[in-house]
Amino acid sequence: MPASTDSKPSSRPWRPTSGELALAIVASLLFGSLLGGVAPRSSEPTGASVGSPPGGGLDHHAAKSGSSIRGASSELASSALTLAVGTAPDGVAFDPLNGMVYVANSGSDNVSVIDGTTVVASISVGARPEGVAVDPANGYIYVTDYAAANVSVIDGATNTVVDTIPVGYSPTSIAYDGWNGGLYVVNLGSANVSVIDGATDRLIDSIPVGPNPEGIAFDGANGYLYVDSYISSNVTVIDGATDNLRAPVTVPWPASNCHNCSYPSALAFDSWYGTIYLAKCGANNVTVIDGTTDTIGGTAGSGACPDGAAFDNESGFVYVANCGASNLTVINTTSNAEVRSIPTGNCPDGVAFDHRNLKLYVVNFNADTVSVISTPAADARYPVAFREFGLNAGTLWSVRFAGSTEDSVTSSLTFYERNGSDYVYSVGKLPSYRESPVVGTVNVTGATVTVPLNFTFVPPPPTPLWFNATGLPPGTDWSVTVYGAGTYAGSTSNHSTTTTVGFGLPAGFAGNYAVPAVGRYVPTPDSGILSISPAGKPVAVNLSFSPLGSNAPPISVGLFEANPSRLALGGNVTLTVGVYGGTTPFTFAFSGLPAGCTSQNRSTITCEPAGQGAFDITVRVSDELGRSAGANTSLTVGPPTSTATGPPNASSTGASGSFTLTMAELWGALGGAVGTTAILLAISTKRRTRDP
Question: Among 327, 386, 392, 417, which is 20 to 30 Å from 146 by CA?
Answer without folding.
Answer: 327
